[in-house]
Amino acid sequence: MEAEQIYGVWAPPDALWSDWVAPALFAQIVCTEHETKLGEVDLSWFPKDLPERTAVVLDVPGAESFRLGAELAITRGFRPVPVINASPGPIDPQRIVWTAPSALDVCVVDMRGLVHTLCALTPKIGALALKEDAPPVFLLDNARARGERPADEGLFDNRWLVFPQDFPSAAFLQRHGIADVLLVQENSGQPQDDLAHVLLRWQEAGLRIRGRDGKPILVQRPSQFRALWYRALAILGLRRSSVGGFGSYIPGSSSSG
Q1: Structural contact between residues 30 and 101, judged by C-beta atoms closer than 8 angstroms
Q2: Given this model, what pLDDT does residue 104 score?
Q3: Which end of the chain offers a freer environment for a tag, N or C, measured as fewer CB atoms within 10 Å?
Q4: Torsion, CA 101, CA 30, CA 55, CA 174, rounded to 10
Q5: Residue 249 host element (H or E)
Q6: By residue range, what is the domain housing residue 81?
Q7: pLDDT tens, 191-201?
């Protein structure tokens, strides 16, 4: 399946939340026809007393984020919205696709599991008859800012951050009947700093932010909240990709591009 077809499955033109599906991930991947065993997904923890129109934010490892999001789509009718604004790896200069898996050993953020899971789930998502205004489940990768290895010269630096512009506004969510947001992350407590800039704006506008257990979270003010220069300062040290989003080689003697 080619990149445009894959993107069309996750961002269908008639779906309410498609404008927030980040295209950077999809711009350079091609899914081959091979079976990937994903295993069962346990949703027994999912709070049972949430309003029907609750938005979910999954800030967990990338592959798990896609598995949980797909299970919520299949069993609960949520619309998965991948907000993965980064390249999964180096670009083949002859064709804009990610290169062989061995080449991805140079990536700061290892997105192989994420992409394999995305490919395995794409036919399942494409076969669902989800409502156009189905409540969203936003898919993130919690390793986005740190990666799995130091960002040294010669490596492909695909670290990235989320910004308020990457998500619907609180007013848009409220206009479509959403007043509650369920934040799912590996650890309890405060969200990652970049995500806190999003969630606090929602909270200030009246949205209720809840943790994985369904209990309210009071999002604390992150550094430089609402500062005009926040985005410019935040992306210092990150590298833009030629296909959009983030991702490129760190200059050095071992650099390949």
Answers
A1: no
A2: 61
A3: C
A4: 130
A5: strand 248-249
A6: 3-35+50-249
A7: 999 999 999 99
